[in-house]
Amino acid sequence: MKNLQELISEMHLNTNMNIEEIPDLDLYMDQVIQLFENKYAPSKRYPEDKILTKTMINNYAKGQLFYPIKNKKYSKNHFLLISLIYQMKGTLTINDVKQTLHLLNSKITEEDFDLQQLYSSYLELTEANTETFKKDVVNHEEEVNQLVSKLQDEDEDYLKQLLLVAVFTNMSNFYRRAAERIVDEIGRKETE
């Protein structure tokens, strides 16, 4: 098995769109897609994977995941919302993402809400979470190594990999379920 630290570094965990990297002028869809492809390319699992497509953006617009664009151009706020959608859609359903962002879209259009400040907070949390994740991975690996060594099996590497996959997917499911509960709470508050 590859060293787990190598695998983590290959994941490019801190690949996020920083506010300074987004132009202050409005962009056409192709420009938005190109910026996403350039930024997130290192985090793709397979080289042929697409980060963002016209179809995806059109579906987000039709599904009202972000407020309407003007003159076929996307503002910096649209870009930030698409970035949040990109991060959430790997775990949540599109309906859950829409529910989560509904009030935020209203705040942006009706209250002139400062999305850049909120997004900066998200980036700070993401950076802290990356460090927590790295420590947790080391802890999980140590626990798995201890447990597998007791089995005294010739396929020790495979058993370690199997348990790590099981543990990581289990933790992922815990976080997904917690996120879904919060989405449900958001939905309940909006219908009150």
List the helices and strands and how they pair.
Layout (H helix, E strand, L loop, with lengths): L3 H7 L16 E2 H12 L13 H9 L10 E2 L1 H13 L5 H18 L3 H37 L4 H36 L1
Antiparallel strand pairs: 1-2
What does this structure look like?
The protein has seven helices and two strands. The N and C termini lie far apart (about 50 Å). It has two domains: about 100 residues; about 70 residues. Helix 6 packs antiparallel against helix 7. A two-stranded antiparallel ribbon has the order 1-2. The mean pLDDT is about 95. About 70% of the residues lie in helices and about 0% in strands. With about 190 residues, the protein is mainly α.
What would the keywords be for this entry?
mainly alpha, 192 residues, 2 domains, 2% strand
